[in-house]
């Protein structure tokens, strides 16, 4: 059962169609961890060009999906509510298997470090319990319309 639906997610993060990739949040423990879901469908616009006859979700969009889940976790912290989390760095990203239409990406994020205006998470995307991607992501948090 989802604890946050798509509308609640869009109330928290600024991403919108066609680049809002989180369908729902399964669980969240504020300041610690989140599990979210992305249903990968053949209707995704990127499958038209990546790749015709062999549709594969681009790795950069898997990272973006992980980053959006991490943003939700970070922005649910009371001190960051109403702000925006900007991806500052990607470390140790590894892709273990391709993601195709029909797959359900389970996104598991753990907050490992939090300071005044930044956070670091470990992120994992799974399909059927198997790791598709892992990475460490760093975020800078700023006022919603502030230029950084």
UniProtKB/TrEMBL annotation:
Q: Which CDD domains match?
A: FabZ
**UniProt keyword terms in alphabetical order:** Cytoplasm, Lipid A biosynthesis, Lipid biosynthesis, Lipid metabolism, Lyase
User: Does the keyword Methyltransferase belong to this entry?
Assistant: no
Q: Describe the task this protein carries out.
A: Involved in unsaturated fatty acids biosynthesis. Catalyzes the dehydration of short chain beta-hydroxyacyl-ACPs and long chain saturated and unsaturated beta-hydroxyacyl-ACPs.
**GO annotations under biological process?**
fatty acid biosynthetic process; lipid A biosynthetic process
**InterPro entries this protein is in?**
FabA_FabZ, FabZ, HotDog_dom_sf
Question: Where does this protein chiefly localize?
Answer: cytoplasm
A Pfam family matched in the record: FabA
Of the GO CC terms on this record, one is:
membrane
Q: Spell out the protein name for this chain.
A: 3-hydroxyacyl-[acyl-carrier-protein] dehydratase FabZ
Residues annotated as catalytic: 50
Q: Which organism is it from?
A: Liquorilactobacillus vini DSM 20605
Is the keyword Lipid biosynthesis assigned to this protein? yes
Please tell me which top-level EC class this enzyme sits in. Answer: lyase
Instruction: Recall the GO molecular function terms of this protein's record.
Output: (3R)-hydroxyacyl-[acyl-carrier-protein] dehydratase activity
- EC assignment: the record states 4.2.1.59
- What is the reaction catalyzed? a (3R)-hydroxyacyl-[ACP] = a (2E)-enoyl-[ACP] + H2O
Where does the record say this protein resides?
A: Cytoplasm
Q: Which family does it belong to?
A: Belongs to the thioester dehydratase family. FabZ subfamily.
């Amino acid at each position: 059962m989802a604890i946050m639906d798509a509308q609640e997610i869009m109330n928290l993060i600024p991403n919108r169609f066609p680049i809002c990739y989180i369908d729902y949040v399964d669980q969240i423990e504020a300041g610690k961890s989140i599990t979210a879901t992305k249903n990968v469908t053949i209707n995704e616009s990127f499958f038209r060009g990546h790749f015709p006859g062999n549709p594969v979700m681009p790795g950069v969009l898997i990272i973006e999906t992980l980053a959006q889940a991490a943003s939700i976790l970070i922005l649910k912290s009371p001190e960051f509510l109403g702000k925006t989390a900007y991806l500052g760095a990607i470390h140790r990203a590894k892709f273990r298997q391709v993601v195709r239409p029909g797959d359900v990406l389970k996104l598991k994020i753990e907050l490992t470090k939090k300071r005044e205006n930044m956070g670091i998470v470990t992120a994992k995307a799974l399909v059927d319990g198997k790791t598709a991607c892992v990475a460490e992501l760093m975020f800078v948090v700023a006022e919603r319309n502030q230029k950084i």
